[in-house]
Amino acid sequence: MKTYITLFIVTCQSVVALAQDKTPYLTKSLSNDAIKNVFVSTSGGSITVSGATGQQARVEVYITGNNGSTPSNEEIKKRLDEDYTLDISVSGHELHAVAKNKHHGDWDWRRSLNIAFKVYVPQDVATNLETSGGSIRLDNLKGEERFSTSGGSLHIDQLTGNIHGRTSGGSITVSNSKENIDLETSGGSIHASDCAGTIKLGTSGGSVHLEHLNGKIDASTSGGSIQASNIKGELHTGTSGGNINLTELACSLDTYTSGGSIHVQLNQLGKYVKIEVSGGHVDLQLPSKQGADLNLHGDKVSADLGSSFSGTKEKDRIEGKLNGGGIPVNVNGGGRITLSLN
Predict the structure, then answer these.
(1) What is 36-75 written as a DSSP string?
(2) Is 78 helix (H, G, I), strand (E, B) or coil?
(3) pTM, full prediction
(4) Which end of the chain is less enclosed by CB atoms within 10 A, N or C?
(5) How far, in Å, CA of 291 to CA of 268, rounded?
(6) What per-residue confidence (pLDDT) applies to 105?
(7) DSSP 8-state class, residue 6
């Protein structure tokens, strides 16, 4: 069965807001539709999709005026009729919710509306979401999730599956998620915690904070610092303009910075360690009982390794075997390198 909502019947809905910032302007039940795919597009508002249990399946539409103003329902309907297309349809277990401005070019921006969607669905749902001016939130979903915003942040929690998200101007927060995670921002920070799987994170202008991750992790920034702790698996991380601080690692490691220093604490070696620094110093702590093949080159290289080391120690390099050799540890820097054992 297909249901369809247009602007001409918006005011006939049973739920109409008295205050659009707290109560939905429009609610549509999805209880009888067994939704499997969600498509949402809005030109000026946020999007939320939740698969949390114990909630009635539904779509809620929230509408506010320009700069957070709260026009009357009559004024909202008038602006919608004249300036916007608002359609919600369900067919073949697919939900389509679209809000877009009818105008292309000059118009009275003071009449603009912020149209946001909140969608509550079963967990096993795929999404395709797009907004040009708001944030996107997803939680408790399993499936293929694709989403993008031109001007807002991304908030991801408890997703499982193929997760692909982009924002041109906001931060990214992802937690308690797993499998394939690919998230990128052009202008914000990234915070990832308690995730597992293949994880790719990138920002062009912000910092990166990672904690309690397990898997194949690739995280980079072009203009910020990087902090990471409690990482297992394989970590590739780097920055073009900041410091890197990595602690409590039990993983393979490849890290670099072009404009800062690096501190690394490895509690357990993975398959390799590779560190590149152009102008800063490197402080590296290795586990005292594991074997490693050391190859360290810098302006000044120092280490207190005792009898566990055999090889060459000079002012600008250390080459040799730690605890009989084993995992390759390569460090190249333009400044001071300090190696210690923990």
Answers:
(1) -EEEEEESSS-EEEE--TT---EEEEEEEEGGG----HHH
(2) helix
(3) 0.90
(4) N
(5) 11
(6) 66
(7) -
